[in-house]
Amino acid sequence: MQISEDIKGLQAKIEEEYQVIDRLYQETSKVIVGQKYMLERLLIGLLSGGHILLEGLPGLAKTLAINALAQSIDASFNRVQFTPDLLPSDILGTMIYNQAANKFTVRKGPVFANFVLADEINRAPAKVQSALLELMQERQVTIGETSYKMQEPFLVLATQNPIEQEGTYPLPEAQTDRFMLKASIGYPSKEEELAIMRLNMQAEKTKVNSVATIEQILEARKSVRSIHIAESIERYILDLVFASRTPNKFSNLKHLSPLISFGASPRASINLALAAKAHAYLQNRAFVIPEDVFAIAKDVLRHRIGLSYEAQAEQISAETIVDTLLDSIQIP
To answer: Helix (H, G, I), strand (E, B), or coil: what is residue 74?
Structure first.
C-alpha cells in the first residue's frame, strides 16, 4: 500500500518535471532532424548520470547533437578533439611555474566542465585514454598532489568512427566499461535527409536556446533514482548479465559459451537498472516495466561482451549475442 502511494506521489512530480525534459527534446530537435534514438540515449545518460559513447559513420550529427544538448542547458561545455599527439596534461591540466609568484600553480584542462565532448576518442593513444579512467569513474582529477572534484552534472560524451582503422587506437575494456551506454547511430531516412538538407541551406543558422537549468536537471535525476523497480525486474536484469558471463549454466544458451571470452561486469547490472529507470522517466512513468529493460539492454551490454576468436572468425557480433540473450531469457 505504501509503495502504491509513493508511486502516485512520484508520478505527479514526474509529470510536472517532464515539461523541462520535453523542452530539451524540442530545442535539440530544432537542429537535429530525426535521430530520435540518439537524442533519447543522450537524455537517458543525462538523467541517470552515465557517460555515453556514440559510434557512427561521419556526418551523422553526433557532435552536433551533443553540442545542442549542452547549449539547451545552462551549463559549461568543452570540446576536446582527440589526436595521436595529445598528452594527458592537454586534457586534465598540469602544474605550471608562475614566475611572478615564484611558485607552481594549477592550470586546469578542458575536462573541467559540466559536459565534455571527447571527439573521435579512439584517435588518442593509450596513455591519454587511461588518463580518463579516474575522471569518468571517480569524477575527479588529480593534478600534482591535489584531487579536484567535478561539478555536477558531469558527463563525458564521446564519439568514434567505426570504419577508420588507420591512426586509431581501440578503447581498452576498462574504459569502455565506464561508458553507461554505447549507442550505434545509423543513417537517416530519405525524408529526414531532405529536411536536413533544407535546414542547412537556410540563410540564417538555427540557434539553440537554453531552456533548462542545472538545478532542474539535478532534481530530475533525484526523481529518476526514486522510480520504483520490482524485484522480478531486478532478477531479470541479473539473469541477462549472468547469462552473458556463464551461458553454459542456462540450458538454452549453452551454444554461446564458445563465442564469449568474457561477459558483462557488475557495472552492467547497475547501469541497466539506472538506464531502465531513466527510460521509464522519459515515458512519463514512475515505475519500471520489462519493456524499459528490453529497450535499453542492447546499448548497455553491446560494449561489455568480449568475443572469442571463434566468434570473430564466424563474424558474430556482440549485438547478435545480446539479441540471443534477450530472446532466450524469460521476461517477468
So the answer is: coil
3-state class (DSSP) for residue 183? strand
pTM of the shown model: 0.89
Q: How many domains does the chain have?
A: 2
How far is residue 157's CA from residue 45's CA, in Å, rounded to a whole number? 9
pLDDT at 256: 87
For residue 285, give the nearest of 248, 240, 230, 237 by alpha carbon: 230
State which residues form the domain around 286: 227-328
Inter-CA distances, 75 with 21, 26, 70, Å: 15, 18, 7
For residues 142 and 234, state if they share a domain. Answer: no
Looking at 173-177, 213-217, 312-316, 323-327, which range is the least confident one?
173-177
Phi and psi angles of residue 264, each rounded to the nearest 5 degrees, phi first: -70, 145
**Contact present, 288 and 295 (Cβ < 8 Å):** no
What 3-state DSSP class applies to 82?
Answer: coil
The reply to whether omega before 162 is within 30° of 0 (cis) is no
Q: Report yes or no: 277 and 224 within 8 Å, Cβ to Cβ.
A: yes
Residues near 94 by beta carbon (within 8 Å), at least 6 away in sequence: 106, 107, 109, 143
Note the pLDDT of residue 163.
Answer: 67
d(CA 155, CA 151): 10
**Among 167, 201, 235, residue at a domain's last position:** 201
Whether 68 and 179 share a structural domain: yes
Whether 230 shows a pLDDT value over 80: the answer reads yes
